[in-house]
Write a structure and sequence with these properties.
With 325 residues, this protein is α+β, with helices and mostly antiparallel strands. It has a single domain, classed as Jelly Rolls (Sandwich). α1 links the parallel β1 and β2. It is globular, with a radius of gyration of 19 Å. The structure holds 2-oxoglutaric acid (AKG) and fe (ii) ion. It comes from Cucumis melo var. makuwa.
Length: 325
């Protein structure tokens, strides 16, 4: 694959404060056009990311046989090795709402007791903060549709949302030429309502524009901003007012490991996803048949490949009324 470099300017929203009307309108524009934006002043310190990064290095450099103790063939199934999502990608899953217990279950196989405890505590704190941030984000997204709208729909529709996170390690092939890229994670949309991503300074996250071009989402160094993107569940719930964009990760020279953490926050399994009437509009068209959240998640699950999600299928393939593929 040869390198094509263009990058997108996304708004960076200060999530520590109520958003001004002009910030809400740039949020709405970004969600419609890209389905991506940045948040700053999110309350997670550089030290936390440094610690998580060093735990990640420690975990992923363990012998494969150790990692496979929590791999797809074990009952825990929190580790996904290389060659499932891509040859260059491996990941560890930590599930909420009890992030401490979930991290601890994996950590017991990976670390000595002391590190194991520290790892789980940091993930507990991180998972809780991400959950809180997701709530703030959805609140602002709903506010961008109008204050009355937020009041009416925030509590009843989003109160049972929950999240999980994935610590990702990308190992590029050493044979990469200067003008070459490898696909670290193939094109996909997220199944969440919102996803919050920390990417290290390596870069490589790309979003597909509505014209079908891949553009880079560069890490913002100075403000340590996090990337937020809209997932399929929110695209369907919003009747396509919000875009769940296709994105991927590419790896370039220098061939160094890339570290990221993605937090996925979405509806409870039994939730029926159906757009509120205000978003369909009078005489407007419903873009999706109402569906049960877990049915969509099952549709995306790939049994043959270690139950990692299928890449390349979206909520339009599942419940869309318009055939566009
Ligand atoms: O690693 C990244 O920057 C993004 C990962 C991602 O898109 C995902 O895990 O769904
Ligand atoms: Fe993603």
């Amino acid at each position: 694959m040869s390198v094509s470099k263009a990058s997108v300017e996304l708004p960076i929203l200060d999530i520590s404060q109520p958003l001004s009307p002009s910030s809400l309108s740039s949020l709405a524009d970004a969600c419609k056009k890209w389905g991506f934006f940045h948040i700053k002043n999110h309350g997670i310190s550089k030290e936390i990311y440094d610690k998580l990064h060093s735990f990640s290095n420690e975990i992923f450099s363990l012998p494969l046989e150790t990692k496979l103790k929590i791999g797809p063939l074990s009952s825990l199934n929190t580790y996904t090795p290389h060659f499932i999502a891509s040859p260059f990608f491996e990941t560890l899953r930590v599930s909420g709402p009890n992030f401490l217990a979930s991290a601890q279950n994996s950590a017991e196989f990976l670390f000595n007791q002391k590190s194991s405890h520290q790892f789980s505590e940091i993930l507990q704190e991180y998972g809780e903060k991400m959950t809180e941030l997701s709530r703030k984000i959805i609140k602002n997204v709903l506010l961008s549709f109008g204050e009355g709208f937020e009041k009416k729909y925030h509590e009843p529709h989003f109160k049972n949302c929950h999240g999980y996170l994935r610590i990702n390690n990308y190992t590029p092939p050493e044979t990469l030429e200067d003008d070459e890229e490898a696909e670290g994670l193939g094109m996909h949309t997220d199944m969440s309502c919102v996803t919050i991503v920390y990417q290290d300074q390596t870069g490589g996250l790309q979003v597909k524009s509505s014209e079908g071009k891949w553009v880079d989402i560069n890490p913002c160094e100075e403000s340590e901003a996090l990337v937020v993107n809209i997932g399929d569940l929110l695209q369907a719930w919003s009747n396509d007012r919000l875009r769940s964009s296709e994105h991927r990760v590419v790896l370039r020279r220098p061939a160094i490991n890339r570290f990221s953490i993605a937090f996925f926050w979405g509806f409870e399994d039994e939730k029926v996803v159906s757009a509120p009437k205000e978003l369909v509009g009078e005489g407007g068209k419903r873009m999706y048949k109402p569906f049960v959240c877990s049915d969509y998640l099952k549709f995306r699950e790939n049994d043959e490949r270690g139950k990692f999600e299928k890449v390349g299928f979206t909520v339009r393939d599942f419940a869309g009324k318009i055939i566009n593929k």
